[in-house]
Write a structure and sequence with these properties.
281 residues; alpha+beta; 8 helices
Length: 281
Amino acid sequence: MSELIIRYARLSDMNDISSISRTTWEGDDYLESLAPSWIEDGGFYIGLLDKRGIGTFRITMMPDRVLWLEGLRVHMDFRGKGYGRLLADAALEIAKGKIKSGEADCAEFSTYFLNSESIIISESQGFRRVNSFMLMTKENPEHSACVKKIDASWKDFAICPGHIPCGWKFPRTCSEGMEWVKARAEIYTNGDASFMMKTHSCDFTPLGGSSDHPGCFLEGAETVACMYGKSAIQIIVHETFDSIIEEAYNRNYTTWDPVDGPNILVFRYGKVGNSIGTGSA
């Protein structure tokens, strides 16, 4: 095996990064679109094999002294050869260095439940599952509610067990996490339910009142999706919010793949603190 060289990604690497992204999740991957901003913001790494970029990962700081790991990818031509493990080990070593220096307390990431290779590698490294969510989708959402945009308060976010879903990132449920989310989302109410939409996305998260009034949440979220011309909607719901999940199924929401439980899993390396959710310690 040739030596894998890992360095910060550059704009000149975009051809290789695009090739990696287009061979991931059957081409339905976000890496290519986000890579330029990730390169500019920093914390985005590329693995080079004989000067060719064959894999990536990103490490950034999240609220509550959490390092967030994402964008771990290996080009299709190089999978099954140990390079994914090398990239994951490199990401963990960088994270451990930051934890040891006092910059952070732990590292976390989220992944799809069928990403078995990533889960196996991370668990062997010492990551442990600390939270679980259900992602559900619906085509052709309906405009059926009168929604109002609000400046949310802590009571809107306090119902989120352990983490606040904001797309595929999950900041901790704390005041800092709330402010982080508010800078990246729009918050609405419909009836007795509040909810949020991640900016420039079709991803919605239930907030205060939604568990008791799941119909208000779903009607409101679909209405906002229609207002923005979305042809589909995604909701990310904590696994314990049975009332919302049941109502979503009644309204013809589906999951990407058949599943009996949660399909988005959050893992942590380091301090487990007071995390809430399946597998929390």
